């Protein structure tokens, strides 16, 4: 129906356009004096009928084609479903027979498997017992080789240690003059610094002594007054403080 309506609309538009194109621009008195609107309506109606019919035919064809396609799709599924339903009992029976056969095989093979496992375990135990002396001998041989290697390397280690000690002694002997020279130079620099600072120290000490002397002389009158007052209050002889 969608295509029928679309065809009707398109046909009406086309019919109206064709009618408008056929209408002369200035009709004479002898011509048919049908109004332009009536002609356009007639052409649109004719075009709508034709377009709707054509759209309906196209829709009917598409629907028929879709029905055929759906029928063709359903047929294989129906056939496959029928085959599956027919084969399901046979499949179940085959599965049951296969399961029973597998169970029988497992049950019949279990003693053989257990026997083989026991035999393999015994063989492994015998192999381990047989290899134990070889392993012990190999370990003892490896220990002896390691001991011999350590004994052989001991003189080299001692020689290297002695050489390192001698090198360190030579380095210390070679560095001793430099250390002594550096210490002597440091002592001389300290002595020169002390000699250079001695006048300044003496000057500072003399200045401090003079300042202390002036401070004592400035404080003597006050001390004498204090001592006199203390003697007068305590009826004691005055005490002279000498600085």
Largest sheet: none
Helix content: over 70%
Average residue-wise pLDDT: 77
Rg calc: 67 Å
Which runs of at least 5 residues are low in confidence (pLDDT < 50)?
236-243
What shape does the CA trace take?
flat
Structural class: mainly alpha
Give the helix tally.
2
Distance between the termini: 141 Å
Element order: H for helix, E for strand: HH
Q: How many beta-strand segments?
A: 0
Describe the structure.
This protein has helices at residues 2-22, 36-234. It has 243 residues and is mainly alpha-helical. Helix 1 (2-22) packs across helix 2. The protein is flat and about 155 Å long. The model is unreliable at 236-243 (pLDDT under 50).
Keywords:
mainly alpha, 243 residues, single chain, flat
Question: Briefly, what is this?
Answer:
The protein has 243 residues and is mainly alpha-helical. It contains 2 helices and no strands.
List the helices and strands and how they pair.
Layout: H1 2-22, H2 36-234
Helix pairs in contact: 1-2
């Amino acid at each position: 129906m969608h295509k029928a309506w679309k065809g009707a609309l398109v046909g009406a538009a086309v019919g109206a356009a064709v009618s408008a194109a056929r209408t002369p621009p200035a009709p004479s008195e002898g011509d048919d004096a049908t109004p332009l609107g009536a002609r356009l309506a007639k052409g649109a109606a004719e075009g709508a009928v034709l377009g709707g019919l054509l759209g309906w035919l196209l829709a009917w064809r598409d629907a028929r084609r879709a029905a055929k396609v759906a029928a063709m799709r359903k047929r294989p599924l129906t056939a496959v479903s029928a085959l599956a339903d027919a084969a399901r009992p046979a499949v179940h029976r085959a599965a049951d027979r296969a399961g029973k056969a597998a169970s029988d095989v497992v049950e019949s093979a279990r003693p053989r498997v257990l026997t083989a496992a026991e035999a393999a375990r015994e063989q492994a135990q015998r192999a381990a017992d047989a290899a134990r002396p070889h392993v012990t001998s190999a370990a003892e041989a490896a220990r002896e080789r390691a001991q011999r290697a350590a004994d052989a390397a001991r003189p080299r280690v001692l020689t290297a240690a002695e050489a390192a000690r001698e090198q360190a002694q030579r380095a210390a002997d070679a560095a001793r003059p430099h250390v002594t020279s550096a210490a002597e130079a440091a002592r001389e620099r300290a002595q020169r610094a002390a000699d250079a600072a001695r006048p300044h120290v003496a000057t500072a000490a003399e200045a401090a002594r003079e300042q202390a002397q002036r401070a004592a002389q400035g404080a003597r009158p006050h001390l004498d007054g204090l001592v006199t007052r203390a003697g007068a209050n305590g009826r004691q002889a005055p005490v002279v403080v000498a600085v």
